[in-house]
User: Which sequence fits this backbone?
C-alpha cells in the first residue's frame, strides 16, 4: 500500500463520521483525527445539535404539561423546575450519543488520533497531540470536516457565568426570570423559544435587519403570534455596546443602540447568552499551503462531489458553508466517500428540507409564496390551520399552519411550509411528493391516519383544489 490509509478525516462531526462509516463499508482503511481530547462528535454532539435538541425536548415537555395542568400550582415554571434537572437529561442524551459514535467507530475498525490535524501536503496530515507530540499520517485521500465556530464578541466578554455561550450553557444554575440572547441566527431563535416556554421573559438582540428572512411570510406571522403569547421580543438592527453589572439595582445591564437611528437603550436581565456569527474552522489546517480555494467568507470551495481544488482533498459540513445543517453534513460526507471509491451515489438537489427546532417547530422545503410571486410563477395556495385538526385539539395546541404552494396546471407541489408540532417530521411527506412529482390529488385519494398532524396535508390539499377550481381548473375524478 502506497499510503498508510485510504482516507484521513480531520473532524469527527456528522460529515466526518458518516464518511468514515461509508468508507469502511467499501473496505477502506480510515483514520479519524479529532482535536477534542475527551469527546468525539464535535459540536454536533457536544455543543450543538444534540444537546440543544435535548434541552428543547425537555422544555417542550414541561410546556405541554403546564398547558394541560396549569392549575396545579401558583408557582411560575422557572420556580418549579431546576436548570440542573434539564441539564441532567441533556447530559444523559449526550453521553448515550457519544457512546454510540465510539461504538460504531470501534465496530467498523476506524482508527482514531487525538490532536490538531494539519495538512502538510496533499496526502499527509500532521497531528499534534495535547502534549505537543507530533506525528505524521499519510492517506490517498483527505476529508476536511472541521466545522465552524462562533466569533467572540468585541464589546463584552463571555465570562461563562453571567454571560454564557452555547458551550457554557451548562454553567447556568437556574432557569432565569429574565434573559437576553444576543444573535439572530437559527440557534439563537431556537434557544429563545426554549426559555420562553419555561416562563422566562426573553429579549433577543440581533444586528440583522430581519430575523429568519427566508421564512414564508404567513409562517412568520404565526411565529410572531407565538412570540406575543410567550413574551418573547426580538429587536432587529441593533448593536450591543456592552454588558455590565449594575450593583445599585442588583442586575446585569445590556446596553445597545439602534444602528439606523443611533438611539441608545438598556435592558435589565439576569443572564445573557451570546451566539456569535459563525465562521469556518479553517485556521492552521494547511489550506493555504496546499492552495485550496476558499470563497470571500473563508468557506472551502467544493464541486458536486465535495472535492476541493486539490483533487486528493475533499471538504464537507459547516466548513463549506450553506446550508450548515447536520442533516446535510451526513449526506455530504457520504457522497464524498462514494466519489473517492468510484461508487455511484446520490447528489443533493435543491429540494431538501430545513428544520428549525423552535417550540413549536418550523420546517420548509421548496418555493415560498413570496418567491413564486417574485419569479412570476403561476401558483395556488392550500392552507390547513392546526386549530382545525382534531390532533391539535387533543394535544391542546392551537398554534400552527401547514401551507402548500401548488402548480395549478398539474397540481404538483412547488413548496411546503409548516409551523407547529411535528413540523420537522411531517415535512418529509411534502419532500417525497416534490421529489417524485406527485399531484396533491394523492392526499385526497388516499386515507391518512386520524387523528394526526399529517392530516393537515389532506385539509390543505382540499383547500388548494377549491382555490384552483374557482380559477376554472376542474378536478375530475382525481386526474390532473
Assistant:
Amino acid at each position: 500500500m502506497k499510503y498508510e490509509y485510504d482516507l484521513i478525516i480531520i473532524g469527527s462531526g456528522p460529515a466526518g463520521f458518516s464518511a468514515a462509516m461509508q468508507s469502511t463499508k467499501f473496505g477502506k482503511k480510515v483514520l479519524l483525527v479529532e482535536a477534542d481530547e475527551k469527546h468525539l462528535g464535535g459540536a454536533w454532539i457536544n455543543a450543538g445539535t444534540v444537546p440543544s435538541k435535548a434541552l428543547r425536548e425537555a422544555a417542550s415537555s414541561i410546556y405541554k404539561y403546564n398547558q394541560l395542568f396549569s392549575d396545579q400550582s401558583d408557582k411560575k415554571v422557572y420556580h418549579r423546575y431546576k436548570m440542573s434537572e434539564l441539564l441532567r437529561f441533556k447530559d444523559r442524551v449526550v453521553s448515550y450519543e457519544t457512546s454510540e459514535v465510539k461504538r460504531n467507530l470501534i465496530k467498523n475498525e476506524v482508527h482514531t488520533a487525538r490532536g490538531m490535524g494539519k495538512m502538510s501536503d496533499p496526502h499527509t496530515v500532521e497531528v499534534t497531540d495535547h502534549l505537543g507530540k507530533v506525528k505524521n499520517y499519510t492517506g490517498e485521500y483527505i476529508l476536511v470536516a472541521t466545522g465552524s465556530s462562533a466569533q467572540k464578541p468585541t464589546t463584552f466578554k463571555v465570562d461563562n457565568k453571567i454571560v454564557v455561550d452555547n458551550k457554557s450553557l451548562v454553567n447556568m444554575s437556574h432557569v432565569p426570570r429574565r434573559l437576553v440572547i444576543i444573535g439572530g441566527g437559527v440557534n439563537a431563535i431556537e434557544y429563545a423559544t426554549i426559555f420562553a416556554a419555561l416562563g422566562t421573559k426573553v429579549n433577543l438582540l440581533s444586528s440583522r435587519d430581519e430575523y429568519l428572512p427566508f421564512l414564508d411570510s404567513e409562517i412568520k406571522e404565526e411565529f410572531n403570534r407565538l412570540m406575543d403569547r410567550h413574551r418573547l421580543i426580538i429587536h432587529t438592527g441593533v448593536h450591543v455596546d456592552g454588558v455590565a453589572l449594575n450593583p445599585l439595582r442588583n442586575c446585569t445591564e445590556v446596553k445597545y443602540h439602534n444602528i439606523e437611528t443611533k438611539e441608545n437603550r438598556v435592558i435589565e436581565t439576569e443572564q445573557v447568552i451570546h451566539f456569535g456569527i459563525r465562521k469556518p474552522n479553517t485556521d492552521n489546517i494547511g489550506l493555504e499551503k496546499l492552495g485550496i480555494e476558499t470563497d470571500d467568507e473563508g468557506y472551502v470551495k467544493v464541486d458536486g462531489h465535495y472535492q476541493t481544488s486539490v483533487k486528493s482533498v475533499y471538504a464537507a459540513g459547516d466548513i463549506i458553508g450553506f446550508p450548515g445543517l447536520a442533516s446535510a453534513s451526513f449526506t455530504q460526507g457520504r457522497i464524498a466517500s462514494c466519489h473517492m471509491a468510484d461508487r455511484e451515489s446520490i447528489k443533493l438537489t435543491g429540494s431538501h428540507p430545513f428544520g428549525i427546532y423552535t417550540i413549536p417547530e418550523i420546517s420548509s422545503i421548496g418555493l415560498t409564496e413570496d418567491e413564486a410571486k417574485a419569479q412570476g410563477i403561476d401558483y395556488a395556495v392550500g392552507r390547513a390551520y392546526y386549530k382545525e385538526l382534531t390532533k391539535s385539539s387533543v394535544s391542546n395546541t392551537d398554534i400552527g399552519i401547514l401551507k402548500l404552494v401548488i402548480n395549478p396546471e398539474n397540481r404538483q407541489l412547488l413548496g411546503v411550509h409548516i409551523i407547529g408540532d411535528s413540523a420537522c417530521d411531517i415535512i418529509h411527506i411534502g419532500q417525497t411528493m416534490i421529489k417524485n412529482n406527485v399531484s396533491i390529488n394523492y392526499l385526497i385519494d388516499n386515507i391518512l391516519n386520524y387523528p394526526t398532524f399529517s392530516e393537515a396535508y389532506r385539509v390543505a390539499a382540499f383547500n388548494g383544489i377549491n382555490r384552483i377550481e374557482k380559477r376554472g381548473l376542474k378536478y375530475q375524478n382525481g386526474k390532473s
